[in-house]
Structures are given as C-alpha cells and as structure tokens.
Write a structure and sequence with these properties.
The chain is built from 14 helices and 26 strands. With 529 residues, it is α/β, with parallel strands linked by helices.
C-alpha cells in the first residue's frame, strides 16, 4: 500500500501548475541542482524557478506565442531549460524538446512537420538550427528569452489553456522513415505523474539524479514528478555519463538519493569504479530504471555493493508515458531468470490478447499488451492512420467508444499475475532506452546508390549490450561501412547508427520467402567468432 505522503496534495490542470505547486509550501527549498558554469554545483530554489517561469511566460506572450503554437527547444536539461518548458505550458504552447546535437536533416524534418512558431536554444551554447526561416531565439537565467519574432500560424486566437490541450510532442523513430511525433496532453501526462506518486516512487526529501536526454520523455517524467512531489531534481551533465569517476563524484557532490536512467548507465561504473559505487553508501537509497532489461548479473553486483538499495523497474511506451512499475525483490531469488514489469501503474490496466483478439489468462502464455489508462497520448502528429492503428476501440466492449493503446509489446503472466516482457510484435527495438524502428534505418541504408537491399537487427554484443547490425547487399562498389554510417549520421541520432555492417551477396530467405532472421543472427555470431 502506497504511503499517503506520496498522494498529490496540489491538484493542477497543467504541467506548470503541477510542477510549481510546492512554491506555496517550500519556496526556498532547492528545486534544481546543476553544474555551475565556473565549476562546482549551484541550486535554484522553487521560488527562483517559479520567477524564471513567470518571466519567460511573459516574454513568450509578449512576442506573440499563442495557445497551440509549437515551440522547439534544443537543449540539455538545466534549470533554465526546465523554466522554458514550464513557461510554454503556462502560455499554452506545445513544447517539442530535441537534442542540441540533433542531425540537421532530422531537425528539418521535425520543423517541417510541426511548423513551430520558433526554435529556442540556450544562449552561448552551440546547437543545431533549422535550415528554413523559422524564427530563432535564445534563453538564459540573466536575460531571459531573446527573440527576433515568432511565426504567425494564422489560426484564430484562443483565450484559455485547458488540461486537455496538447502539452508536448516527443519525436521517436517512425516506420515511414520519418520521425513520429507523440502528442501528449496536460491531463494525460499528469494522470501518469499522479499515478507515480501513488506508487510511491519518490519522496519529498529525495534528490533525484536525471540522466536521460531532455528529448527523451523519461527526462520530463523526472522533472515533473520530482518537482510535483516537492523533491529536488539533479540535472546530470551529459558529458559526465562517459566518465565513471566524474559521474560518481557529481552524484556525491549533489547528494543524490535516487538515480533514474537506463541499466547500461551502471555497466561502466560496475566495471571500472566498483569502490566508488560502494562509497555512495546509504545516501543513495534507490534507483529507477527504464528503457531496457537490467542484466541480472549486473543487478546482483550492484546490490552487493549497495545492499540497502531499492530498485524500481519502470516499463512502458512514450504513448502512455509508461504503463507499469515493479519493485525488484530484495534479495533477488537465485532462480530468477527475468524481472517482472509489474501489473500496471495505479490507475492503469494491462490486457493481454491473442492474435484473435481474445484475452490470454493462462500463466506463461504470451499475448500482446493493450493498455487501458488515463495517460493515453492524443495521437501521432499529423498521422491519423498511425493513430488509428495504435489507439483502438476497447476490444472487450467496442461499443463503449473507449480507446485503448495497442502497444505491440508481448508479455506473459506468472501464476500470481505479474507480467514479464517477451519482446516486440513488430520490428521496434530499444537501444539504451531509445526506441528504434528498424525499418527507418533500413530505408536510410537503401538510399545509398550502391545498396540493393538492407536488413537491420538488434543483437547482443560481446559485452551483453544490444547494438544494431546491418546486413547489406551491395553489388555495386562504393558502399563501405564508413559511407553507410555517415549516411545514417546525417539524418539520425547516434543510437540509430549500426555498429556493424555485414556485406552479403543476397539475404537468406525462409520457407515463406521472407528474410531469415535466424540465419542472419547465426551469420553475425559466426562472424564474431
């Protein structure tokens, strides 16, 4: 049973009101802790953050940003970036977070698709800018938001922001070769954040280290749940993640009590700095992980170094923010071969259906996960066909008009009802927590004039971490691994670029005339050996 301390006490209809509610009770408490420009760490109180949000919102409104306008924010996580996102929520603008190092073609694709009123980036920080004439602006703590103007959408103006309005759009990998925009309303996001609070994932005295990119919806979860609970968010610099000793030092210096990130975050720490991990001691009370499986050997090693650690597995898709939490048992049974993903967050129900659309109730039998919850996304931006495929009528009572999310994830239940993830029903995979539609990578490779066919698989490497392997049929000369990697790099983020390229005379086919993925996997394993 969840501790009543975690039940939200500050009802709010929009993200900014939810996240800034603690201003009324703990205005001087640190809201955000971040790396200082001159070294060390600096804190921004709830009062200071709220003032920054208010100033930014006034500047956006004065410049002509209106309810429903889209604003692209190219930034890493910082107190000022958080203030920009909350200011957008305040004025009713739909924010679109992207990585500042986003490939130019991908940024242009997002801008072309959404028609933003402006693109914002931190002042004095290099960030990609779109190639068109979209107005640009900068922001910082001292001078606020500096704009040359905003693009007029030509739409009739509105007067009031409501909770059902879109709050943000997160772009993920898409099957058409173009990024897919997941539109989430204030009410839907808040439904999940409040469910998280009822689960008791965080407490008001926590200091939560966020390690995910701002363009990843997990970062928005960290920001809103931490602030809305009255906790302190720690913005971990992206550069620290590649240096285990530096990362551990930052966690110690900021007094982190909870770390949220993909399991692979811990691999280099366990391998190169186990003493540093152990030195975090009882101050580090828990970790949350999402986006990929946590190898059990590494999890057991982490628990050996930090025996008191609470470990929570968060599972789900951007379309529902997430859909389930599960406490990892302590101790983890020696016979355990996989971790449960739980039963659904408080307020959500997960159905398992077979290929005929009938419920799967028998333990150990896999079915596709259909999610019934209040945190459903509104749809995919400007893609009604994909939206209809994902938001489907309630399969148990289609006459009700209720929609559920068809996830494409496969799972089975154990005898107690706990769910265990089995894989994807389609070609989507996750690498270090990032969703990748393999078809998008394959189509990009096929654009090379020397490539006649390409197929991409996510295969485990020697270190146990999944990575993309591309199988390429290239009868014409010139299609080298370097060229193909560069082709991908120009339009896709780093995690979507294959790590290996295997060149074949033709793709092996199975009895149904389809590419034989088992045979390709065996070829890749033989190539390694």
């Amino acid at each position: 049973m969840a501790d009543e301390r975690f039940v939200p006490r500050f009802p709010a209809d929009t993200l900014d009101a939810f996240a800034l509610a603690p201003v009324s009770t703990t205005p001087d408490k640190p809201a955000v802790v971040e790396a200082g420009a001159a070294g060390g760490v600096v804190s921004v109180s709830y009062r200071e953050l709220a003032q920054r949000v208010e100033e930014y919102a006034k500047q956006l409104g004065a410049a002509g940003v209106r309810i429903g306008d889209r604003v692209v924010v190219a930034s890493h996580t910082s107190a000022s970036a958080i203030a920009v996102l909350l200011a957008c929520a305040r004025v009713g603008a739909v924010f679109i977070p992207v990585d500042p190092d986003i490939p130019a073609l991908r940024l242009d694709s997002i801008v072309e698709a959404t028609g933003p009123a402006l693109v914002l980036r931190p002042a004095g920080v290099a960030a990609r800018t779109p190639s068109g004439d979209t107005p640009l602006g900068t922001f910082d703590a001292e001078d606020g938001i500096a704009l040359d103007g905003v693009a007029d959408s030509g739409r009739p103006g509105r007067r009031t922001v409501v909770g059902g309005d879109p709050a943000y759009i997160i772009f993920t990998s898409g099957t058409t070769g173009r990024p897919k925009g997941v539109v989430m309303s204030h009410h839907a996001a808040l439904a999940f954040y409040r469910g998280t609070q009822r689960f008791g994932a965080l407490a008001p005295d926590d200091r939560v280290a966020s390690t995910s990119p701002l363009a990843f919806d997990v970062a928005l979860f960290d920001i809103c749940v931490s602030l809305g609970t009255g906790a302190t968010l720690i913005a971990v610099p992206r550069a620290h993640l590649s240096f285990p000793r530096r990362l551990l030092g930052f966690l110690r210096d900021t007094g982190a009590t909870v770390v949220h990130g993909v399991p692979s975050l811990w691999r280099p720490l366990l391998r190169h700095e186990p003493e540093g991990v152990a030195a975090l001691g009882e101050r580090l009370r828990g970790i949350l992980f999402a986006g990929e499986n946590f190898p059990l050997a590494e999890l057991r090693r982490l628990r050996t170094l930090l025996p008191h650690l609470r470990v929570v597995n968060a599972f789900g898709a951007t379309e529902t923010v997430a859909c389930s939490f599960s406490e990892v048992p302590d101790p983890l049974p020696e016979t355990a071969e996989a971790l449960s993903i739980g039963r659904g967050y408080p307020g959500a129900e997960i159905l398992l259906l077979d290929e005929a659309g009938l419920p799967v109730d028998e333990p150990g039998v896999a079915g596709e996960m259909y999610i019934r919850c209040p945190s459903l996304f509104s749809g995919y931006w400007d893609d009604p066909e994909a939206t209809r495929a994902a938001l489907v009528p309630d399969p148990l009572e289609p006459r009700s008009g209720q929609l559920v999310y068809r996830s494409g994830d496969l799972a089975h239940r154990d005898p107690s009802g706990e769910l265990y993830f089995c894989g994807r029903a389609d070609s989507m995979v996750k690498i270090r927590g990032n969703r990748i539609e393999l078809g998008e990578v394959e189509r990009r490779l096929a654009e090379h004039p020397g490539v006649s066919a390409a197929l991409v698989l996510a295969l485990d490497g020697p270190d146990g971490e999944a990575a993309l392997t591309a199988f390429v049929v290239a009868p014409a000369p010139g299609a080298t691994p370097a060229e193909l990697a560069e082709l991908c790099r120009r339009s896709m983020p780093v995690y979507m670029i294959p790590k290996r390229f295997l060149f074949l005379d033709e793709l092996p086919l199975n009895a149904n005339g389809k590419a034989d993925r088992k045979a390709l996997t065996a070829l890749a394993e033989a190539d390694v050996s």
